[in-house]
Each structure stands twice: as C-alpha cells, then as structure tokens.
Amino acid sequence: MTIAACAALVERGDHDRFRAVMAAPVAARARLFPLYAFNLEVARAPWVTQEPLIAEMRLQWWRDVVENASSGAARAHEMAGPLHEVIRDFGLPVAVLDTLIAARRWDIHPEPHAGLTELSEYLEATGAGLMWMAAKALGAPDRAEPAVRAYGWAAAAAAYLRAVPDLAVRGRQPLPESVSPQDIANAGLSRLGFARQERASVPKSAVPALLAGWTAEPVLRLAAAEPQRVMARDLHIAEVRTRGRLLWQAVSGRW
Fold first, then answer.
1. How far apart are CA 122 and CA 126, in angstroms?
2. Fewer CB atoms inside 10 A, N or C side of the chain?
3. Number of domains comprising the chain
C-alpha cells in the first residue's frame, strides 16, 4: 500500500485525523498516515464479526504484524509494508503498538470497564499510545512522552464520549457503574492542563502529531458543563469553530 492509499483509508474512516494530517507539513504526512491507517484497521477488527474468537484472531494477527516489523514478515496485509517502514525508520517501540492492539480486546465483549481506572488504562493504551507513537515518528524525545501522552489521553477521552451512544446501540456498556460523563470530561481537562504545563518538552517538529487532538478541549468542556449532551449525541462543535481551531494550532504550533 502506498502512502496515498493509507491517506485514502484514513479519509474514509477517520476524517478528523485525516484533516489533522492534511494541516500538517507535507514531510510529516508520510509518517502519520501509516500509523493512523493501522490504528483504524485495528479499531475496526472487533466490529467486523459477531464471533468473539474470530475478532480475537484478527487482533492477534495484527500483533504478529507489529512483532515482525524488524524482519519484514507477516506482510500479507497491504498496510503492513508502510507500517513496518515507519516502525523501523523511526525506531518506534513495538511494545507500545502491541499494547494498543491488546487493549482493543475490550471492544469485543459487552462487559463494561470495571471502573474509571480501567477505562483510563484503555484510553492510555489506545489514544495516548497512538499519539506518542506519532510524535516519536516526528522526532519527539523521550522526555516529551508524559506531555504527549496526557494530551493524547484527553483527545481519546473526548472521542470516547462522542462514541458513547453508538457503543450503547452496539450492545456495549461504555460507562462503568458510578462513572459519569463529567468524571471522564474533568479527567481529560486535567490532563490537558498538565500537557500544557509540559509544552516546552515537545519540539516543534513533533507538534503535528498533536493536531489530532484539535477538538478535544471544546468537546470536554461541553461534556463537563452539560453531561446530558453525551447520550443525546449533542457534543457537536460548530464547523467554523473547529476549522478555525485546527488552522490556529497548525499555524501557531500551540495546542
């Protein structure tokens, strides 16, 4: 699969991340599109079948793809080639990607997360882990990991809150007992605050990886102030506002 094909896949299935990458410098796109296409394919794996065992096998296949990145094996899927190149060329730790895949096992089963801690771990493994891999592919040093992960967790929390109604329709229990949308939103806002305190640790070259969180703050603030909007599918932010926010972040390098 070419980078253009990865981009087309992301455009069809993850439009927010597609827009974020297109707002990034051209040089960054070849590093980000394979990671985001990989993430999309892994996120889809638990939902393409009604059979839990088959879903488990699909996720295990992706774990094998990531594990074999250094050898070039398990390239049967068109996504494997570009992904392997990004992993090898930029020294991405396969353990982080493996943890991302393993966390998606929760999506296979109807049981809820046990509590806020377990949901937090899920968001850490998925959204935060992906953002850290994207930033690392763009040259972020290890000292930037806490800030990037905090921002990625907040972005994942915002996306999760927007997905809650669809998860419920699909037979999942997205909110653990005694955990409210406000709890999740406030935790996300707290992590946004920490990320910005540590902003200096993230080099300018890696900032395009954080553009994927461009809608996080307004969504989290809305959910914190009016949590009833979550189940009402009403966490919509005006297009003109989000477009302006993305443009501002891309041009200013601030987040």
1. 6
2. N
3. 2
CA distances from 19 to 2, 119, 126, 245, 249 (A): 19, 27, 20, 12, 12
pTM score of the predicted model: 0.94
Q: Answer yes or no: do 208 and 243 share one domain.
A: yes
For the chain, the 3-state helix, strand and coil shares in percent, each to the nearest 5, are 75, 0, 25
Are residues 71 and 154 located together in one domain of the fold? no
3-class SS of residue 216 = helix
Q: Which residues contact residue 128 at a Cβ distance below 8 angstroms, ignoring those fewer than 6 apart?
A: 148, 149, 150, 152, 153, 156
Which two structure tokens, joined as six digits, stand for 97?
């990607």
| Beta-carbon contacts of residue 224 (< 8 Å; ≥ 6 apart) | 182, 185, 186, 189
CB 85 within 8 A of CB 34: yes
Q: pLDDT tens across 19-60, in order?
A: 999 999 999 999 999 999 999 999 999 998 889 999 999 999
Residues 88-127: tens digit of each pLDDT:
999 999 999 999 999 999 999 999 999 999 999 999 999 9
Sign of CA dihedral 33, 35, 36, 41: positive
134 shares a domain with 26: no
Considering the domain architecture, whether residues 121 and 96 belong to the same structural domain is answered as no
Q: Provide the residue range defining the domain that includes 34.
A: 1-109
CB atoms within 10 A of CB 45: 23
How far apart, in whole angstroms, are the C-alpha atoms of residue 63 and residue 215?
Answer: 30
Here the tokens at position 103 are 């966390």
